[in-house]
Amino acid sequence: MGQIEWAMWANEQALASGLILITGGIVATAGQFTQWYFGAYSIVAGVFICLLEYPRGKRRKGSTMERCGQKYMTKVVKLLGPLSRNYYVRAFLHLGLSVPAGFLLATILGTACLAISSGIYLLAAIRGEQWTPIEPKPKERPQMGATIKQPPSNPPPRPPAEARKKLSEEEEVATGVSSGPQENPIPVTDEVV
Hints:
- This protein has 8 helices and no strands.
- The chain is mainly α.
- Helix 5 (87-101) packs antiparallel against helix 6.
């Protein structure tokens, strides 16, 4: 059985945590809770987390489905360098971002989810995983001469290619005539009666 890639789980968990933080922050800010500024912080932190976690990392084995529009965010995350690639940094960043949001009831669920994703990222970092971007594969252009083929000369059903070669060779030997143009044995005249 294969190894579990913990970073994939942490990525999904952190993305969901960011969305939950945004939702809780909107509720706290719009509801004018007594500590509404923690709600505003949760909105900003949730947006930052969603932007950081939107691009999926490439799996070690197998293929990875790219999220819609991920290639644009991947360029931004790649610019952050080791701050985005290293899962130790992500684990402690998420843990630090979750603490202020824990002081408000509307954002406590997002805080708990973000703390869990921080723990999963820490486990991924301990296991030696690292974020690598999903690079598009270069498209191989087919040679123009190799793709153009002649259409078949005789109608279907056609015998296999080997049988056709054998049949044409046998006909040439039997008739003694090559497969060139045929001559009409009856003379043709253009007289109109």
